[in-house]
From TrEMBL, chain A:
GO molecular function: small ribosomal subunit rRNA binding; structural constituent of ribosome
InterPro entries assigned: Ribosomal_bS18 (IPR001648), Ribosomal_bS18_sf (IPR036870)
Originating species: Orchesella cincta
Protein name: 28S ribosomal protein S18a, mitochondrial
GO cellular component: mitochondrial small ribosomal subunit
TrEMBL record, chain B:
A cellular-component GO term for this protein: mitochondrial large ribosomal subunit
Species lineage: Eukaryota, Metazoa, Ecdysozoa, Arthropoda, Hexapoda
Keyword Zinc-finger (UniProt): no
Keyword DNA damage: no
Name the UniProt record assigns to this protein: 39S ribosomal protein L13, mitochondrial
A GO biological process held by the record: translation
Native source organism of the sequence: Orchesella cincta (Springtail)
InterPro entries tied to this protein: Ribosomal_uL13 (IPR005822), Ribosomal_uL13_bac-type (IPR005823), Ribosomal_uL13_sf (IPR036899)
Keywords of this entry: Ribonucleoprotein, Ribosomal protein
UniProtKB/TrEMBL annotation, chain C:
Gene3D superfamilies, A to Z: 6.10.160.10, Ribosomal protein L20 (1.10.1900.20)
Alphabetized UniProt keyword annotations: Ribonucleoprotein, Ribosomal protein
Recorded superkingdom: Eukaryota
Ribonucleoprotein found in the keyword field: yes
Coiled coil segments of this chain: none
SUPFAM superfamilies with a match to the protein in the record: Ribosomal protein L20 (SSF74731)
GO MF, one example: structural constituent of ribosome
Name this polypeptide is given: 39S ribosomal protein L20, mitochondrial
Family: Belongs to the bacterial ribosomal protein bL20 family.
Keyword Ribonucleoprotein included in the entry's annotation: yes
InterPro entries reported for this sequence: Ribosomal_bL20, Ribosomal_protein_bL20_C
GO biological process: translation
């Protein structure tokens, strides 16, 4: 049985459909990674203060603290020896239905944030990667990402709409263990 | 049998009516729970398959069932043969669900029950409805609810912006980070 | 020997068993069969012999079946008291640890006939389970959700 990533499952008409082509033109993958030059930090909004001392006029740009700062969870000391990774420290088993947690690890386009920013360990980072896809395919979060499939030296882009109606799906998170550590041992 | 004992007998073997909300539930996993109530396995008086102590189950929202992610809507296939040569048909789950949104749950329960003559009678006590509209004569019978197997997930859209902002955050952005 | 009615003739047996009376003993066992297996000797004797073999198996299966019935009754009684499915293990373990040595037959009968007794036994087990931090007994049970799946 072909998996979902196999392009053989899509009919040929999907590859030339208007939606896929428009995706190619408007949103190439490189556009998501490229970043135009920016002089100010969008996260830490700089506030401009103008002070007059006699003849001098001093214009300062002060960094305003982020809105997130108030709501950051207090992390306990790590029981497993995994330093720094917030998910390991809290001992959380995140499921794909926990959209409020998953939402923190993606940007506005729906792409996963790098490890330097999130501070996740490699295992949790990969796990979160699967969870984001699961949450999207279950229809719980919206993403604006073009999924590329490489097969036998050719690249395909997944169509936006399937031929069949989109019924409800749920995912079993235990399959992630199989993706990460290989198939389960069966006796 | 004395008058009081006779009433006790009636009360013990009264058929109860249960409600089950199939929203975001796996039909094949919830079939194991539903058939337990159809057989009467949830009662202590249950003593094997020959006991006639099964209950009625009313299933609502059967059009909102959820199958396992990946391809299950496409590879779950229902076979039928008309009896004539070339009369075999294979219907995918999404095709069957399009035709009749109560059929997948019905078939799952039918498959789950014991294969004997009591199966037909038990299936008559299963009432499946595709949405929350139940006939008026059924509603006063319902006494209790079967707990769902999975919690109904909430979409990110359904949360308010304030809820998303005030939810505890696991990390803060570094100083030079540019939001995009 | 006086056989004035047919009802008494059913149990009649002479002191010396000739062929007729021997067959009569076998045909009594086949009297509830369907079709010619009831009265035709050559079919009836084969069917009766097979039926007696089934009975021998059934004597063993009956014990297994009764054990299943007791387990079903205990788990159903436990679920009425708020345990999860397969949560009756906690109840049995709690009873064993609090030195209430009742077998499954007794507990199953109590669940059917004396639900109040079963409930008070549950309280004993539950307190013990809470003391020893056994699984799934700490805190209130969730509403509407059975557990992780």
């Amino acid at each position: 049985m072909a998996g979902i990533t196999s392009p053989l499952r899509f009919g040929l008409k999907h590859f030339v459909s208007k939606t896929a082509m428009s995706n190619l033109k408007l949103k190439p993958l490189s556009a998501l990674t490229q970043r135009s030059l920016s002089t100010t930090c969008a996260c830490y909004v700089k506030q401009i203060d103008v002070t007059e001392v006699g003849d001098q006029i001093v214009i300062e740009a002060k960094i305003v603290p982020s809105a997130r700062e108030k709501y950051i969870a207090k992390l306990p000391t790590d029981p497993t020896g995994c330093k720094g990774c917030p998910l390991c420290r809290l001992g959380l088993t995140v499921r794909h239905t926990d959209v409020l947690i998953i939402n923190q690890f993606i940007n506005s386009k729906g792409k996963q944030l790098p490890r330097e920013i999130t501070g996740l360990c490699m295992e949790q980072h990969k796990r979160m990667d699967y969870l984001i896809v699961m949450a999207e395919k279950a229809g719980l979060i919206d993403r604006d990402v073009v999924r590329k499939i490489e097969f036998k030296g050719l690249t395909y882009y997944e169509p936006e709409e399937w031929e069949e109606p989109n019924y409800r799906k749920y995912y079993d998170e235990t399959v992630i263990n199989e993706f990460l550590y290989g198939p389960r041992k069966r006796h | 049998m004395s008058a009081t004992k006779r009433v006790q007998q009636w009360l013990t073997f009264t058929r109860q009516w249960w409600l089950f909300d199939a929203k975001w539930q796996d039909p094949y996993k919830s079939a194991t729970v539903i058939t337990k109530y159809l057989k009467g396995g949830h009662k202590p008086i249950f003593g094997g398959g020959h006991m006639d102590c099964g209950d009625h189950v009313v299933v609502i929202n059967s059009q909102d069932i959820a199958l396992r992610g990946g391809d299950e809507w496409y590879y779950r296939v229902y076979f039928h043969h008309t009896g004539y040569p070339g009369g075999a048909t294979w219907t995918k789950a999404w095709e069957l669900h399009k035709i009749d949104p109560t059929m997948i749950l019905w078939k799952a329960c039918y498959k789950e029950l014991d294969k004997n003559w009591s199966r037909r009678g038990r299936m008559l006590r299963l009432h499946i409805f595709k949405d929350e509209k139940i006939p008026v004569d059924i509603i006063p019978n319902i006494t209790d609810q079967i707990p769902q197997l999975r919690a109904v997930p909430k979409r990110l859209k359904d949360y308010s912006q304030e809820e998303i902002e005030k939810f505890p955050k696991l990390f803060d952005f570094p100083k030079e980070h540019v939001l995009d | 020997m006086v056989n004035l009615t047919l009802a008494l003739f059913r149990n009649a047996r002479p002191h010396s068993l000739d062929a007729f009376w021997k067959k009569r003993q076998t045909l009594k066992l086949s009297s509830h069969f369907y079709g010619r297996a009831r009265n035709c000797w050559s079919i009836a004797i084969r069917r009766v012999q097979r039926a007696l073999m089934y009975v021998t198996e059934g004597r063993k299966l009956r014990k297994v079946h009764m054990k299943d019935v007791w387990n079903d009754r205990i788990s159903a009684g436990a679920q009425e008291l708020g345990y999860l499915p397969e949560g009756d293990r906690t109840l049995l373990e709690g009873l064993a640890r609090s030195n209430v040595l009742l077998n499954r037959q007794t507990l199953g009968n109590l669940a059917v006939m004396e639900p109040r007794t079963f409930e008070s036994l549950n309280k004993i087990a539950r307190v013990r389970a809470n003391e020893e931090y056994m699984a799934r007994t700490l805190g209130p049970f969730p509403k509407g959700v059975l557990g992780k799946l």
